[in-house]
Design brief:
It is a single chain. It is built from no helices and 10 strands. It is an all-beta fold.
């Protein structure tokens, strides 16, 4: 059974940093491109970043490309999102997904002073 479980969210002040994790199981993680997305309050799903199976290619939304970094550890079956210089408008539920469409439940990030 495919499972994607995000963690690392929480409350952070503007300008702060958080690192999100996505633990994958039930499939061969190292074979698949993975993606982070977010859903802000009252908004649709917004794509943020993608990384290919061996980390040789990454792509970012212009809204986060100077502040967020996607990475993965295939030995640990884990995807990461390092988020720096956080802004109140980054408040959202962040989720990871696999190339074949599975998505986790997400982790809430709240940026507020």
């Amino acid at each position: 059974q495919v499972q994607l479980v995000e963690s690392g969210g929480g409350l952070v002040q503007p300008g702060g940093s958080l690192k999100l994790s996505c633990a994958a199981s039930g499939f061969t993680f190292s074979m698949y491109t993975m993606t982070w997305a977010r859903r802000r309050p009252g908004k649709g799903l917004e794509w943020l970043a993608t990384i290919n199976h061996d980390s040789t290619y990454t792509q970012y939304s212009p809204s986060v490309e100077d502040r967020f970094t996607i990475s993965r550890d295939n030995a640990k079956n884990t995807l990461y999102l390092q988020m720096n210089s956080l802004r109140p408008e980054d408040t959202a539920v962040y989720s990871c997904s696999s190339a074949f469409g599975s998505r986790g439940q997400g982790t809430l990030v709240t940026v507020a002073s």
